[in-house]
Amino acid sequence: MENPILEVRHLSKTFGTNAVLKDIDFTVNKGDVTSIIGASGSGKSTLLRCINLLETLTTGEILYHGQDVTKGKVNASEYRAKVGMVFQSFNLFNNMTVLKNCMIGQEKVSHIKKEEARDRALYYLNKVGMAPYINARPAQISGGQKQRVAIARALAMEPEILLFDEPTSALDPEMVGEVLDVMKSLASDKMTMLVVTHEMAFARDVSTHVVYMADGVIEEEGLPEKIFTNPESLSTRSFLKRILNE
Amino acid sequence: MLIQLFSDIGKLWEKYGSVYLTGIANTLILATVATLIGCVIGFLCGILKTIPYGPNDNIIKRFLLRLIRIIIQAYVEVFRGTPMILQAVFIYYGLPYFFGVAFKDIWTVSILVVSINTGAYMAESVRGGIMSIDVGQFEGAKAIGMNHWQAMLYVILPQTLRNILPQIGNNYIINVKDTSVMFIIGFSDFFAVHKMVSGAVFKYFPSATMEMVGYLCLTLLASFLLRKIEKKMAGKSNYELVNTDQLVMTAGTYSLPKDAASPFDEVNKDIREGK
Ligand SMILES: Nc1ncnc2c1ncn2[C@@H]1O[C@H](COP(=O)(O)OP(=O)(O)OP(=O)(O)O)[C@@H](O)[C@H]1O
Ligand SMILES: [Mg+2]
User: Fold this and answer.
1) Which of A57, A188, A233, B238 has its CA 20 to 30 A from that of B67?
2) pTM for this one?
3) How far is the centre of ligand 2, averaged over its atoms, from the C-alpha of A87 (Å)?
4) Predicted-assembly ipTM surpassing the 0.90 threshold
5) CA B19 vs CA B103, B166, B183, B213, B244: distances in Å
6) What is the pLDDT of residue B269?
């Protein structure tokens, strides 16, 4: 059952003369949990930022339900509201409480009434186990908690797909688990996710599809079992060998 | 000697107390209004100067934004780089010179001069304040669908305001003192009263003493109030945990839209129905 939400077509991105992404092509279907893995500097973050229109593409297109969102015909803000993003550095709003962080987008972007926005924010904060902390400010909670709030903030917009850029890389080791648990529960709820990660166990056990990137191209992609046990590309093989032996 | 001084001050106060008080009131009103307007000018400049543009924007937008930046920079350099006393003279006499109309009201021109001067200082502070907020929060705002202006209004500017509050306070205290130069165009502030009274009764030192003490009291009061405001804006330093059971009940009243493209269509039915 193919039901593409996102189709990335011939995407290239150049910073000055530095070609960071070269002719990237892939599709995300509804319910997919796609992990993007690859060495540092291979362009994973840039790819996610292009998909969320935080960077402008040099060439290529991004189709959202078949409609190209890169040519200015689709309103970037409306599109972003449907494509959530969770950052490595959380990026919570420091001037707001946890609850307000999860309400402001609903109120100002989706024009949802305050009471409903509050209910919805509580629902998702409860889901990530952060409901008791609604009155705290970002500076007052731990990294793992911040990331869970950031996930709730993204979920509160009820996006169709969530992008994660190394959501656990900035966390102390003992906090990685709580965030991965939340992501696992989202995966089991059939949330569509696109996850850049260095957590190979997550990529192998949770995702339905794995994309391996090297030097700005998709070197190999496929089912996690295939990529992790029997990769075709030599580059994939040596990357996995290196990272799994760490 | 001291007794002599006190008795002179006493006499001055008896005769001219209300004049001094009016001077203080005028000084405070001018400094306060001009600082507030100056902040508005400063925020406008700072916001205009940080509108992003890239190579993909059309040429008119790029040209306009660059022009705005140049104009603001020129404004800042001119009004930071010349004495306010001269700016007052320049504007007060410049307008009739060019347009043949004089300022009818000394208040208008005084507020104008001090506001523009303050705005020039604030413009840089605000720009710096905006730049000092890490771009991550901007991207966080964009990622949930806010546009540039919403991100500015709800996320960046409130934090900018809090961060530059000390500078605003600084400017306010400077204005309380430096509005004294407006006597040059005939504004009757606290210092102008000194010039008038001491010229009439030849009690220069006693009057100057009163002025010194008066200004000091004003600025001390101002910094006290500003610290209070700063503390208030910093927010609570602690938070209370909320009882989760209560929350779950509230959250249970929220039901996802039926036709939602939401991820939780099937799996979370139980939670939604409060089971
Ligand atoms: N704004 C920018 N300007 C210039 N070059 C950039 C910019 N952003 C990224 N790059 C370059 O693009 C390349 C890919 O960066 P990117 O952050 O996408 O890698 P990554 O795969 O996410 O790496 P990591 O695993 O370390 O996060 C790097 O060589 C980086 O130097
Ligand atoms: Mg990265």
Assistant:
1) A57
2) 0.86
3) 10
4) yes
5) 24, 32, 15, 16, 63
6) 38
3 state DSSP class of A136: coil
Nearest-angstrom CA–CA distance, B115 and A151: 45
Chain B residue numbers with beta carbons less than 8 Å from the beta carbon of A122 are 247, 250-251, 254
In order of start, what are the domains of chain B with their CATH numbers?
14-243 (1.10.3720.10)
In whole angstroms, what is the distance from residue B32 CA to residue B80 CA? 19
CA B134 to ligand 1 centroid distance, Å: 18
Helix (H) or strand (E) holding A194: strand A193-196
Strand partners, B26: none
User: For A57-71, A194-208, B9-23, B96-110, which range has the lowest pLDDT when averaged over its residues?
Assistant: B96-110
Q: Would you say the C-alpha torsion B104, B107, B108, B113 has a positive or negative sign?
A: positive
What residues of A are in contact with residue B145 (Cβ under 8 Å)? 77-78, 80-82, 105, 109-110, 157
Q: Please, which pLDDT band fits residue B57 given cuts at 50, 70 and 90?
A: confident
Give the whole-angstrom CA distance, residue B122 versus residue A41. 40
Please give the interface size between A and B, counted as residue pairs whose CB atoms are below 8 Å apart: 129
Q: What percent of chain A shows pLDDT beyond 70? A: 99
